[in-house]
Amino acid sequence: MAYNSNSNLKSPHSLSAIVLAGGKSSRMGQDKALILIHGVPLLQLICNIAGTLCNTVYVVTPTPEKYQHLSLKHCQFVREVPLPQENLSNPASTKITLPLPHGPLVGFAQGLAVVQTDWVLLLACDLPKLQAEVLQDWVRELENIPQDAIAALPRHAKGWEPLCGFYRRSCLPVLNDFIAQGGRSFQAWLAQNSVHILPLPAADMLFNCNTPDDLAFVIDDKQ
Ligand SMILES: Nc1nc2c(ncn2[C@@H]2O[C@H](COP(=O)(O)OP(=O)(O)OP(=O)(O)O)[C@@H](O)[C@H]2O)c(=O)[nH]1
Ligand SMILES: [Mg+2]
């Protein structure tokens, strides 16, 4: 059996996590990864939850030095690098590099390249209401997911929730192909592939803290 069914779901070789911390935080006006939620930096909160399920948590960012002072157990940094632009119709452009940040899909691909486990839990760093219990329930489902599904994700009316769910390590080649052809959208990539739907019992778990108003809402929320 690939996943333990008891409350300690860590299984040494089955699951790792990638936490993305390389965005611009332009709407927040300050680095979201470092904002304090009830005294805890948001990136640390997310990594600690991921660390309850996974033995290795990769933090993907172009600037690891910004986060080295945090208490990030089980974490390794993956330093994100600029992506050579691959425009097949114009080979001369391969010398141009894409500026950072180049978006979460490319950050995920660079993190996935170092993952050793069959499945990886991908998380944004701006999910202050993330619930370990829901993630644990999802982990229990992983062994029953059809082989052709590249990912297992919650869904909302407009599409997938790509930054809080699970991906097979084996999807890296198709992901790299998509990126090499200029693709940068998770929704567009996922639409081309088979994806398993995960139930979302608590919709507010995916509350995205993008703006100062979002932050005030989270901090005021006593729950
Ligand atoms: N590693 C990495 N993470 C990214 C990149 N772009 C976005 N992210 C992460 O993806 C998650 C969702 O990011 P968004 O909230 O959509 O965007 P953002 O750039 O952080 O913020 P805005 O500038 O306000 O859009 C966050 O965890 C970001 O840190 C990137 O280029 N590289
Ligand atoms: Mg966001």
Automatic annotation (TrEMBL):
Subcellular location: Cytoplasm
Main location per the UniProt record: cytoplasm
GO biological process: Mo-molybdopterin cofactor biosynthetic process
Cofactor(s) annotated in UniProt: Mg(2+)
A Pfam short name: NTP_transf_3
Binding site for GTP: L20, A21, G22, K32, D126
Function summary: Transfers a GMP moiety from GTP to Mo-molybdopterin (Mo-MPT) cofactor (Moco or molybdenum cofactor) to form Mo-molybdopterin guanine dinucleotide (Mo-MGD) cofactor.
Domain notes: The N-terminal domain determines nucleotide recognition and specific binding, while the C-terminal domain determines the specific binding to the target protein.
GO molecular function, one term: molybdenum cofactor guanylyltransferase activity
One Gene Ontology term, aspect cellular component: cytoplasm
SUPFAM superfamilies: Nucleotide-diphospho-sugar transferases
Family in the record: Belongs to the MobA family.
InterPro entries: MobA-like_NTP_Trfase, Molybde_CF_guanTrfase, Nucleotide-diphossugar_trans
Domain MobA-like NTP transferase: start-end pairs: 17-189
Keywords: Cytoplasm, GTP-binding, Magnesium, Metal-binding, Molybdenum cofactor biosynthesis, Nucleotide-binding, Nucleotidyltransferase, Transferase
Source taxonomy: Bacteria, Bacillati, Cyanobacteriota, Cyanophyceae, Oscillatoriophycideae
Residues annotated for Mg(2+) binding in this entry: D126
Gene3D superfamilies in the cross-refs: Spore Coat Polysaccharide Biosynthesis Protein SpsA, Chain A
Residues that span the membrane, as ranges: none
Descriptive protein name: Probable molybdenum cofactor guanylyltransferase
Protein source organism: Gloeocapsopsis dulcis AAB1 = 1H9
Enzymatic reactions: Mo-molybdopterin + GTP + H(+) = Mo-molybdopterin guanine dinucleotide + diphosphate
EC number: 2.7.7.77
